[in-house]
Amino acid sequence: MSAIIVAKKDFRDAVRSRVLLALTGLFALFSVGGAFLASRLSALFEEGGAESTLDLILALQTPASFLVPIIALFVGYGAIAGERESGSLAFLLGLPHRRRDVVLGKVLGRTGVVAVSILVGFTVGLLGLVAFVGSVSLVDYVAFTLITVLFGFVYVCLGVGLSAMTRSTTRAAVGAVGLVVVFWFAWSVLAQALLFAIEGELLPETIPGWFIAMNAVPPDAAYGSAIAAVLGAGQFTASSAYETQGLIDGGVPIVAKPWFGFVLLALWALVPLAIGLWRFDRVDL
Fold it and tell me: pTM surpassing 0.85?
């Protein structure tokens, strides 16, 4: 219950500072723009109903995989390090809160901020989709929204884990930027470099399974896999095009299977958070 108390305080602080309002407005604009784009695609291909919803989800998935991490890391990176710098952490721990309660409470509170922003913003997007298109598959849209909330939770855990490992918000911010660079750029570059080193060419006739597996591991790829698992739509994963054309040597590895995206998201959330908590438990404030 102590973690819940910390989470409630953290959430109320976000509301008072208008962070929640700003994030909600950002997600609302983002989702309405996606709804308008989906309506244009629907008109172009003369599709409706569930297909229009998939158009919207396709229009939202890629930008969401960029926007959600940035917002969640921004919300999470100063959770512990910021209070340590200001001295308020010592006061907080002077209350009947254990360090574990503080870390978990920060995760819950800041996940609440991100989740409410996504839920409200995407609800506005749903209304926009109905207005622009006139029909929608509510089940598919709600499923996508909930998976996006889970994706935000993963990056909040990464941000709070980083914050718990470091003594200053500057270092935590550098770590957050480093994660973005690694996941968005360095990971794919390294995978392509290894492919060239092992196969001797950038685009071999068949793609080895390890390359598909390596590209399926980052959180944004796992996010796409989770969406594909729930909606049964292969276009949300990078491996689907290779698989359709029979270009994967030995078939799709288990790591790149759509259902395994949920396993990867859980690992990306829990492992960094556990490391941060372990580190936080052993340092002097």
Answer: yes
Place of tokens 């819950």: 108
270-to-22, 84, 115, 222 alpha-carbon distances in Å: 28, 22, 18, 15
Residue with tokens 């109905």: 130
CA distances to 35, 160, 165, 223 from 175, in Å? 34, 11, 10, 21
41-65 per-position pLDDT tens digit: 655 555 444 455 676 777 778 788 8
CA–CA distance, 262 with 151 (Å, rounded to integer): 10
* Confidence check: pLDDT of 268 > 90: yes
Cα distance between residue 144 and residue 132, in whole Å:
19
Q: Are 2 and 97 contacting, i.e. CB atoms less than 8 angstroms apart? A: yes
171, with CB counted inside 10 A (0-12, 13-18, 19+), is middle
Dist CA 263 CA 267 (whole Å): 6
pLDDT mean over 238-262: 77
Give the pLDDT band of residue 27 (cuts 50, 70, 90): confident
Q: How many CB atoms lie within 10 A of CB 255?
A: 21
207 SS3 class: strand
Q: What is the pLDDT of residues 119-169, one digit of tens each?
A: 988 888 778 777 776 667 788 888 999 999 999 999 999 999 999 998 888
State the greatest distance between any 2 C-alpha atoms of the chain, in Å, as a whole number.
Answer: 63
**Distance (Å, whole) CA 21 – CA 159:** 21
Q: Is the separation of the CB atoms in 259 and 268 below 8 Å?
A: no
| Phi, psi (deg, nearest 5) at residue 208 | -65, 150
